[in-house]
Amino acid sequence: MTSAHTERPPAVRGAGVPSSNLWWGLDDIPADWGPCVATVGVFDGVHTGHQQLLRTAAAQGHQWGLPVVLVTFDPHPARVAGPARDTSSLTSPQRRADLARESGIDRVLVLAFDRELAGETADAFARRVLGAGLRAVSVVVGEDFRFGHGGRGDVALLRTLGPELGWSVTAAQLHPHAGVRCSSTGVRRALATGDVRGAAEMLGRPHRLEGCLLAACRRGGSRLHLIDPTAALPAPGHYRVRVTRPVAGPGPLLRVRITERGGVLVPIAAPRPGTGWSGPVGLDFLEPA
Ligand SMILES: Cc1cc2nc3c(=O)[nH]c(=O)nc-3n(C[C@H](O)[C@H](O)[C@H](O)COP(=O)(O)O)c2cc1C
Ligand SMILES: Nc1ncnc2c1ncn2[C@@H]1O[C@H](COP(=O)(O)OP(=O)(O)OP(=O)(O)O)[C@@H](O)[C@H]1O
Question: InterPro entries, alphabetically (predicted)?
Answer without folding.
Answer: Cyt_trans-like, FAD_synthase, Riboflavin_kinase, Rossmann-like_a/b/a_fold
